[in-house]
Write a structure and sequence with these properties.
397 residues, single chain, Rossmann fold, 2 domains, elongated, 17 strands, binds adenosine monophosphate
């Protein structure tokens, strides 16, 4: 089954409620990073060209069910109007009689943006009354907010009960194609690189991808729990002794399925890490084991070469999670080397959201990857094989 998309239907003349991810950072009342607005443009422009009445909605921040001007979407309306080259009517509420009368004034091809849906507790509670009040504004529903698709909220899922058709926008369609299709039926060899802080956060992803990948590469602090599982010492490195058994079963599953499982062969370790100050004190590379008193903060040069060789032969590469504490300059070499290698690979490169996207942008290689997910938690849950409420609420082909 495939989720129906806006390209499968014609919404001409219809009032279309579009859930976007306009949860953008603001600085002094203006949008300071507009990448999420830019990402929403293809869907909005498509609906304008179909002469639909485009009613946009989103959350911004965590106003916790109360109206709070700090979290107003009004700066987004201004930014979006410039990008579209046409007016975007900002409506100062998202449900109720006044909103309905504003929408009644809309002509075909017009665009309105509703105020923050999280100004009502009914949004995150997925209250049927709030969902119905939102639905009353429109004839059809488009969800294009992948970043919140893992949440069953009123505007991401509940509203779909009251509207038809319900389809995904281009952004979600692309996420489903790359994180879903291209990893379920990948061009092989399919290499997965996973990193980040905790095995416990990523074990379900590892388990699911062990059924799909030819090679799994592990970096970041996660690798230290795997090192413990192999009986190696990790000094003061971040690890999860409670998950050694889990790591062992993943290693066993890989061996049983013939999946190549690569761990770092060397690490950069430091003595006095101060995250706030961005300083690390003395540093040294260790091969195999890390001595007591030292904390692993990045993969070493031999691991970088090993991982590079593996990625070079891959036809599909999926990356989620940094190789080290990439926020600190002294510990970012491994993460940036992986970013560069993936960007320069000839195969399909998929960046699975969160910190990896941040890292690839910081490294300056984001233009060269095939696809960067816009989700953090949603990408992870989707890669785990979970159903996303914001997607399953939509019509299926
Ligand atoms: P995650 O959200 O699980 O992808 O984890 C990302 C975080 O993992 C980043 O903030 C990194 O600084 C952190 N991280 C990566 N490698 C290490 C490490 N060796 N020690 C401590 N934290 C790490």
């Amino acid at each position: 089954m495939a989720t129906k998309s806006i390209k499968d239907i014609n919404l001409s003349g219809k009032r279309v409620l579009v859930r976007c991810d306009f949860n953008v950072p603001l600085k002094e009342g203006a949008v300071s990073d507009d990448s999420r607005i830019v990402a929403a443009l293809p869907t909005i422009q498509h609906l304008i060209s179909q002469e639909a009445k485009v009613i946009l909605c989103s959350h911004l921040g965590r106003p916790k069910g109360e109206k709070n001007a700090i979290f107003s979407l009004s700066p987004v309306a201004e930014n979006l109007a410039v990008k579209l080259g046409k007016p975007v009517t900002f409506i100062e509420d998202c449900i109720g009689a006044e909103v309905e009368s504003e929408i009644a004034k809309m002509g075909d091809g017009d665009v309105s943006l509703l105020e923050n849906v999280r100004f009502y507790a009914g949004e995150t509670d997925n209250h049927p009354e709030f969902a119905a009040a939102l639905a009353k504004l429109a004839d059809a529903y488009v969800n294009d907010a992948f970043g919140t698709a893992h949440r069953a909220h009123a505007s991401t899922a509940g509203v779909a009960k009251y509207l038809s058709p319900c389809v995904c926008g281009f952004l979600i369609e692309k996420e489903l194609a790359y994180l879903g299709e291209k990893t379920a039926h990948p061009e092989r060899p399919f290499t997965v690189i996973l990193g980040g802080a905790k095995v416990s956060d990523k074990i379900k992803v590892i388990d699911t991808l062990l059924d799909k990948a030819d090679t799994i590469i592990i970096g970041g602090a996660m690798a230290y729990t795997f090192a413990l599982a192999e009986g190696r010492q990790v000094g003061e490195s971040l690890s999860e002794p409670d998950f050694i058994a889990t790591a062992k079963s993943a290693l066993e599953k890989a061996a049983k399925k013939g999946v190549k499982f690569l761990l770092p062969v060397d690490n950069l370790a430091v003595k006095d890490l101060d995250f706030g100050a961005g300083s690390v004190g003395a540093s040294q590379f260790f091969e195999g084991q890390i001595e007591d008193g030292w904390e692993g903060v990045d993969i070493g040069p031999k691991s970088i070469e090993l991982f590079k060789e593996e990625v070079a032969g891959a036809k599909t590469v999926l990356w989620n999670g940094p190789m080290g504490i990439f926020e600190i300059d002294a510990c970012n070499k491994g993460t940036f080397a992986v970013a560069e290698t993936i960007a320069n690979s000839d195969g399909i490169s998929i960046i699975g959201g969160g910190d990896s996207v941040k890292a690839i942008k910081m490294s300056g290689y984001s233009d060269k990857v095939t696809f960067m997910s816009t989700g953090g938690g949603a990408s992870l849950e989707f890669l785990e094989g979970k159903e996303l409420p914001g997607v399953s609420a939509l019509d299926q082909n």
